[in-house]
Task: inverse folding
């Protein structure tokens, strides 16, 4: 009875966090709000690519360091909370610099973003490993995959609410730049604090097989090739996830593409975000069905295949106007949701319990394409154009889907 009660509390805590995290992240949505904000401060797509690379890549670069450090701690909740709070303050930092320097000194504002985005990202990576380890310890495999689908539903509802908030903020005529972005970022600052509250109620069990003697980081690094050599599934997973990351070459640029091609105003930020969230909500029906009927691997492969279709659809819709282009963001909601439900549960399924922390760290650090692809995306767009870049993304994604089948 007690175990059942603890199970329900744990389940509720993860859903609580997912709900408020999604609401918070809508305030800086990486595919709509964040690209639009950066484009207000600079016209350089390569500079934006660097910021986006820091946003996604920094947690991965430091994952091996984080996993090495966290491996020796049987309880990891305090590290999870530390990461959440640091991430929250990075929201506040961006809000303050946007408000005070967005108009007067945009160069200083965009320069400060390199620090705030770095803090946002490194704390995310730190918290992410602790989060995954706590979930793996408190919930069995089948319940984990189902929880990802359930919490994705609640996340989608929260993100939809966030989209409505963003629409309101950017529709008010008297809330121009930089006040509108400063308000959205401040809401994110508060939201992360609320999201963390659920974890205070989880009874985290200690990790098994904590090493008695702490090995050096160099010794830890030397074990990486051994893990890859001895586990074919893990090695193939690393290759496929890197290839699937090619969608990131275009993912953050669809909003900038719409602003440049269709000359849309800021009101479309909220509209496109709502379409993206709507896609996430409806996709949960599909992903939940696949999670129960098949497994996380099927979700991953389906998600990658859709990722190859989206750039081709975007090319076609670019000739029909900004309202039709909203379909692109609807489909982005599908693959964003699918990646969350599929990739990490699949890794947790194939990772041995005694090496789970190492697998999480290796997976992150070796997913190197996430680091360079946004920069390459900005470079390719400025040199080859949007349509050629979309074609490259589609080709690589289809190849990744084929490899996942093999």
Result:
């Amino acid at each position: 009875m007690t175990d059942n009660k603890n199970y329900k509390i744990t389940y509720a805590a993860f859903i609580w966090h997912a709900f408020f995290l999604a609401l918070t992240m809508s305030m800086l949505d990486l595919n709509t709000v964040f690209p639009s904000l950066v484009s207000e401060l600079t016209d350089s797509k390569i500079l934006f690519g660097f910021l986006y690379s820091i946003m996604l890549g920094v947690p991965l670069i430091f994952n091996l360091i984080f996993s090495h450090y966290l491996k020796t701690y049987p309880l990891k909740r305090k590290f999870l909370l530390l990461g959440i709070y640091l991430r929250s303050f990075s929201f506040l930092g961006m809000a303050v610099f946007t408000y005070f320097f967005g108009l007067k000194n945009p160069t200083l504002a965009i320069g400060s973003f390199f620090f705030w985005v770095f803090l946002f990202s490194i704390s995310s990576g730190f918290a992410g490993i602790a989060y995954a380890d706590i979930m793996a310890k408190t919930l069995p495999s089948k319940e984990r995959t189902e929880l990802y689908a359930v919490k994705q539903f609640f996340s989608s509802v929260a993100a939809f609410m966030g989209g409505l908030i963003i629409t309101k903020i950017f529709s008010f005529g008297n809330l121009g730049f930089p006040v509108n972005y400063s308000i959205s970022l401040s809401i994110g600052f508060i939201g992360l604090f609320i999201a963390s509250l659920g974890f205070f109620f989880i009874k985290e069990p200690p990790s098994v097989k904590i090493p008695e003697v702490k090995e050096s980081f160099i010794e830890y690094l030397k074990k990486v090739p051994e893990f890859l050599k001895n586990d074919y599934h893990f090695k193939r997973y690393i290759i496929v996830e890197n290839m699937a990351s090619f969608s990131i070459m275009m993912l953050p640029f669809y909003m900038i593409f719409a602003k440049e091609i269709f000359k849309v105003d800021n009101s479309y930020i909220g509209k496109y975000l709502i379409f993206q969230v709507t896609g996430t909500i409806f996709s949960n029906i599909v992903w939940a069905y696949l999670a129960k009927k098949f497994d996380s691997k099927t979700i991953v492969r389906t998600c990658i295949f859709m990722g190859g279709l989206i750039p081709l659809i975007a090319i076609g819709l670019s000739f029909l106007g900004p309202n039709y282009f909203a379909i692109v963001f609807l489909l982005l909601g599908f693959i964003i949701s699918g990646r969350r439900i599929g990739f990490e549960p699949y890794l947790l399924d194939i990772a041995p319990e005694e090496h789970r922390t190492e697998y999480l760290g290796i997976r992150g650090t070796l997913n190197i394409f996430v680091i360079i692809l946004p920069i390459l995306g900005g470079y390719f767009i400025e040199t080859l154009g949007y349509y050629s870049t979309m074609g490259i993304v589609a080709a690589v994604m289809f190849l990744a889907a084929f490899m996942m089948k093999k």
About this structure: The longest helix spans residues 106-138. The mean pLDDT is 85.
